[in-house]
Amino acid sequence: MSTIKELSAITGVSKSTISRVINNDANVSEKTRRLVLDAIQETNYTPNIIARSMITGKLPIVLIIVGDILNYHFAKTVVGIEKVLSDTDYMPVVFNSMYNEEKEQKLLDMAKQFKFAGVIPMTATGSSQLARVFHDMDIPMVLVNKKMKRSEFDAVIADEYEASYTATSELIKNGHKRIAYLSGQNAKSRISREREQGYREAMEDHGIPIDESIIYPAFLDIPSGYRIAKEIFKDKSITAICANNYLMAAGVNQYAAEIGKQPLADYDIACCESISEIYAKDIIYAGSDLQQIGETAAELLLKRMKGSKESPQTITFSVTQVFNPKTADNKKTGRKR
Amino acid sequence: MSTIKELSAITGVSKSTISRVINNDANVSEKTRRLVLDAIQETNYTPNIIARSMITGKLPIVLIIVGDILNYHFAKTVVGIEKVLSDTDYMPVVFNSMYNEEKEQKLLDMAKQFKFAGVIPMTATGSSQLARVFHDMDIPMVLVNKKMKRSEFDAVIADEYEASYTATSELIKNGHKRIAYLSGQNAKSRISREREQGYREAMEDHGIPIDESIIYPAFLDIPSGYRIAKEIFKDKSITAICANNYLMAAGVNQYAAEIGKQPLADYDIACCESISEIYAKDIIYAGSDLQQIGETAAELLLKRMKGSKESPQTITFSVTQVFNPKTADNKKTGRKR
DNA sequence: GTGAAAGCGCTAACAA
DNA sequence: TTGTTAGCGCTTTCAC
C-alpha cells in the first residue's frame, strides 16, 4: 500500500499536487500529471478512501440494511440494488439486523463514524427510527417498502393492495368462493392492512360475501400458518386460503402435508408477495418485481448522492409477478407512480 | 458526534489523557477518570473507530464475503457467524460477490484500506486468490467450505463425501436400485469430486453396480438439472435421482412437473446439501448444519483475532441434517475433526 | 499521572 | 501551476 507521501518522494512533486492529479484537478501541467500518473502506475497506488473520508466526510459506500438475510424478499431486492451500484464507484455493503434493536443501535453508532455515501434501510421494524437518524445525519437515503407520513423521504414500495387483490382474484378464477384469509396481527402494519383490504375488495368485486370468521389475524410466520391451518381444515367448506405472506402459506402447507392434503389438488393457497422462482411450485402468488424495486431504489439513491434536491418522491410498483399454475397466467410489466 | 478534542475542552484534561481513559489505561488517577467519564456520559461520546484504525491498523469489523446472497447455503452460514459475533465488539458486514471477479477485485482494493479485524471468504470461485491476498495482508481469516492444500489456513468445511453417501443411502433405503447421479462439470471441484465419490461408494456398499451412463456431469444450476431430467425420464428403469446440489434437483423437479410427474410419488430425488426447512418438502437431502458451520468459523476467527498463533486447523462437520419423508429419518448430531 | 508533539493518509485553504 | 500549512479524530512516544 503505497501512499501519497511515497509518491511525493519518488516524483519530487508535493503531496498536494499528487492529490490534485488523483482528483483530476485541472490545474496541473501535463508534464507533472504524466510524471505522477506514471509513478501511480508503478507503485500500484490506490488512494485511501478512509483517510479521504475523514476530510471530505464522504465514503463511497452504500449501506444496505436488511431485516433478515435469509428472507428471499430482502435478498432479491439487494441483488437489484447491487446490480445498479456495480456500474458506479459506490460499493454496496449489507448489514443484517435480524430485526434486533440492539444490533440496529450498534449499527447506528457505526454509521455515524463511517460517513456512508448513502443508505437503504429495509428492516421492517425499526426503520422509522433509523430513517430519522440517517436523515438527521443528512445522509442520502431511500426507504424500501416503508411509507412514512407526508413522505419526507424517498421511498420505493410495492403495491400491497394490488398484490392481495390479485392473489385473491386468482383464487376466485380457480373457482373458489369460500376463501379464508390469513392476516397480520391486531395492531396491523400498513402492509398488513393494505393486503387485507385487497382481499376484501377482491371478494366484494366478485360478489362474494365476506365471512369475518374466516379472516384470521396472526403473526406473519410459519407457526402461525401451521396453527391456523388446523382450524381451517376443520371447515370443509373452505376450499382456498389467501395468506398475507409466504411464511404463513408455507405453515399452512406444512400442516396440510401432515394430514395428507395436497395444495393445488385438495385446496388452493395463495400469498401476497413474490416468491423465489426456484421454490414456488404449489403456492399461487402475486407481487411486485423485487429486483426491480431494488434497482429503482438504487437509482433514486444515486440521484440523491449526486446532490439532487428535488422534493422526496415515492415510487409504487404495481404487481408484475403472478403465478397460478392452474391458469398459466403470465407476468405483466408496469410501474406506477 | 463529539470528539476527544471537545472532551478535552470541557474537562480541561489533555487529549492524551482522555484517550487513556477511553482505552482503560491504568495510569490515570481516579479523580480525572471520573471527570472524563462523566463528560463522556454527558456528551454521548463514542470513539471514532475509523480515526482509531488509521493508527492502530485495526477496525473492529469482520468482513463476510459470499458468492450469492440469494443462496440459502451462504445466508444460513452468515446467520451462524453473526450469532457468534453479536456477543463481541466485532461487527459483521456482508459483501456479495455474485461470483464476479471484477467485484472481488474492487472488494480487495477496499479491504486493503479498511483494516478489517477478520475476514471469512465463502465465495466458491475466487476464494483461493482472495485468501492469498488476505493472508499476505496478515489479516485473520477462516475459510468456509474451501479446503486448501497443506492447510495453510484455518478452515471449516462440510463433509461432502458423507453428505452424498448418506443421500444416496436414503434413496436406497427407499427401495431404489437404479439411481442416476447429477455431478459437477468435467473439471470437477473438490466438492463435486467428493460428492460423486460418496454416491459411488454408497452404491457399491449396498451391492448395486454403478452404471457410468447414468452419471451426468453438468453445471450446478437449475437449467442443467432441467436439461438432464429430459434424458433421465426417457429411461423408465431409473426410479431415483441423486443431485450434487439443490439447484440441480430443483431443475429436475421443474421438468418433471411439466410432464406431470410428482416427486416422492413417481420418483425420488435427493441432493447432497442442507436445504431450508421452509422449502424442502419433496426433496430428500443430507448435509451438515450450515448455521453451526458459521458459528464455528466465527469462533475460530475470534481466536485468531485475539492473537492465537496455533497452527491452522481444519474442522470438518459431518452430516447432521437428514430429511427423508418416507422414512421419517431424524437428525443426528456430531462434529468431526 | 499527565501533557505536548508527532503522525496515520489524505484534502483544503492559502500563498507564492 | 505548485508548494506550504493546517487539520480530520485518534494513538503513541517522550518528556515532565
Structure description:
The structure is a homodimer of 337-residue chains. Chain A has 337 residues and is α/β, with parallel strands linked by helices. Chain A folds into three domains: 4-55, lambda repressor-like DNA-binding domains (434 Repressor (Amino-terminal Domain)); 58-159 and 290-318, 3-Layer(aba) Sandwich (Rossmann fold), CATH 3.40.50; 160-287, Response regulator (Rossmann fold). Chain A is 43% helix and 16% strand. The first copy, chain A, has helices spanning 4-11, 15-22, 30-43, 49-56, 72-85, 101-113, 127-136, 160-173, 190-205, 222-232, 246-258, 290-305, and strands spanning 59-66, 91-96, 116-121, 142-144, 154-158, 179-183, 215-217, 240-243, 268-271, 284-287, 314-317, 321-323. In chain A, the strands form three sheets. Chain A has a six-stranded mixed β-sheet, with helices on both faces. A three-stranded parallel β-sheet of chain A has the order 2-1-3, with helices on both faces. In chain A, strands 4-5-11 form a three-stranded parallel β-sheet, with helices on one face. In chain A, helix 1 (4-11) crosses helix 3, helix 8 packs parallel to helix 9 (190-205) and helix 10 crosses helix 11 (246-258). The two termini of chain A are 48 Å apart. The A-B interface holds A 1, 46, 48-51, 53-54, 61, 69-70, 72, 75-76, 78-79, 82, 86, 91-96, 98, 100, 103, 106-107, 109-110, 112-114, 222, 247, 250, 253, 257, 276, 278-279, 281 and B 1, 46, 48-51, 53-54, 61, 69-70, 72, 75-76, 78-79, 82, 86, 91-96, 98, 100, 103, 106-107, 109-110, 112-114, 222, 247, 250, 253, 257, 276, 278-279, 281. Chain A binds a DNA duplex (16 and 16 nucleotides) through helix 2 and helix 4.
